UniProtKB/TrEMBL annotation:
CDD domains registered for this protein in UniProt: S2P-M50_like_1
Species: Azospirillum lipoferum (strain 4B)
Localization in the cell: Cell membrane
GO cellular component, one term: plasma membrane
Name of the featured protein: Zinc metalloprotease
Length: 225
């Protein structure tokens, strides 16, 4: 039981922090750039209760980590009225980048903590080392995943904000289908692949190399290489 509690908390807490601060960052930057919708609704806060979805933020990421080694989850979306931003198209990019940027900073901080603690000193430092390691992985995956250039992901909003209209408009129209496309890529294609004897784990192909590259960069940056 103690080992189970150790493992669950070392995974769940970093995931909650990563997703909470990701969403709060969106709301904070939107507030500073002219739209106070999230602020008025109490979403510019470090209180995870305001952001977490019990299934998508806690149970699913923990379940996937222990069964597949891959982490996927979500929080309650932060409401942003892009029309109220000072410069809607430009500021939409900054609001979108705030979440992944926060995850990168959290990953770097976690790597520094991982380096500073010695798991042989105490049970607490062993837990901190384990949680920090999970935190690096969770934050990098969350960052890279959200930078996929498909609305409603952050990368899709960045692409819509910087691409010329001839490309941005059709991409923006994909937003209503974005989650369906992601669910198909995450679950349906791998299931189909198992049935026909092919590896159709598209998200592993898409996320694996950039996640490894970012983690290697953080290792070098923090002296863990």
């Amino acid at each position: 039981m103690e080992e189970w509690i150790f493992q669950v908390t070392a995974v769940a807490l970093p995931a909650i922090i990563a997703i909470t601060l990701h969403e709060a960052a969106h709301g904070f930057v939107a507030w500073r750039l002219g739209d106070d919708t999230a602020y008025r609704l109490g979403r510019v806060t470090f209180n995870p209760i305001r952001h977490i979805d019990p299934f998508g933020t806690v149970l699913l990421p923990a379940l996937m980590y222990f069964t597949t080694g891959f982490v996927f989850g979500w929080a309650k979306p932060v409401p942003v009225n892009f029309a109220r931003l000072d410069h809607p198209r430009r500021d939409m990019v900054w609001v979108a980048l705030a979440g992944p940027g926060t995850n990168f900073l959290l990953a770097v901080a976690s790597a520094v903590i991982w380096r500073l603690v010695n798991p042989e000193n105490s049970f607490i430092e062993l837990w901190i080392r384990s949680a920090a390691e999970v935190s690096v992985l969770v934050n990098v995956i969350l960052m890279v995943f959200n930078l996929i250039p498909l609305p409603p992901l952050d990368g899709g909003r960045v692409a819509v904000g910087i691409l010329p209209d001839v490309l941005a408009v059709p991409l923006a129209r994909l937003e209503r289908f974005g989650l369906l496309i992601l669910m198909a890529a995450f679950f349906l294609l791998p299931m189909l692949g198992r049935q026909i004897g092919m590896d159709l784990s598209v998200m592993h192909w898409v996320l694996g190399p950039p996640v490894d590259a970012v983690i290697d960069f953080i290792r070098i940056l923090t002296g863990n290489d």
